[in-house]
Specification:
mainly alpha, Tetracycline Repressor, domain 2, Arc Repressor Mutant, subunit A, 200 residues, 0% strand, 2 domains
């Protein structure tokens, strides 16, 4: 059997940890449990991470980098109109929640709810991730206005902030009621009331 490379081992620990934390939360997920599921020795953890907090920050950075790529792929898809790119983003969220039976939600949102009030380092890092997402939405909405797909009188920054905060809240509510209905309702309100366009 060929041994895993250094990066592969680190990535395996991060991915395993992200999966467990997405289900159980950061505080309830122990290092030993992560390593057991990953099938790597405890020494490997401290070779890559100085502490659990350091590990948590690495998970945030890794997830954000991967998600940024997915977000850019959706929002920069020139084969779709700008409005359809936003619809595609929401559709991806519906698919993710359906696949997990509304149990996991957004990892960054989950960590924000759990850790932002407890640890300033986590709060700052999570806020940076959310701010970067919000800027992408703002750019897409502004481009839609330039293209004439959305009314120019709408404040793109306000709309992007509402999109991010409302969508994250809808995802949280979907977990509580075990249904994507709150997400569906948010999307309807966002398009019709915020952007002033049909959801059809």
């Amino acid at each position: 059997m060929v041994a895993m490379t250094t990066n592969a081992t680190r990535n395996l620990i991060i991915q395993t940890g992200a999966d467990l934390i997405g289900t159980k939360g950061f505080g309830a997920t122990g290092i030993n449990g992560i390593l057991t599921v990953a099938g790597v020795p405890k020494g490997s953890f401290y070779h890559y991470f100085s502490s659990k907090n350091d590990f948590g920050l690495a998970i945030i950075d890794t997830f954000a980098e991967e998600y940024d790529t997915k977000l850019d792929h959706i929002l920069n898809d020139s084969s779709r109109s700008y409005v359809d790119r936003l619809r595609a983003y929401f559709d991806t969220g519906f698919d993710n929640m359906t696949d997990c039976n509304c149990t996991r939600g957004c990892l960054i949102g989950n960590l924000g709810q759990e850790l932002a009030g407890q640890n300033e380092m986590f709060r700052v890092r999570l806020n940076n991730v959310f701010s970067a997402w919000e800027k992408r939405f703002e750019d897409c909405i502004a481009d839609a206005q330039t293209a004439g797909d959305i009314a120019s009188g709408i404040d793109s920054a306000d709309a992007a902030s509402f999109l991010l905060s409302g969508w994250e809240g809808a995802i949280l509510r979907a977990k509580v009621v075990k249904s994507t209905e709150p997400m569906e309702r948010f999307v309807r309100v966002f398009f019709t009331r915020c952007l002033g366009i049909s959801t059809l």
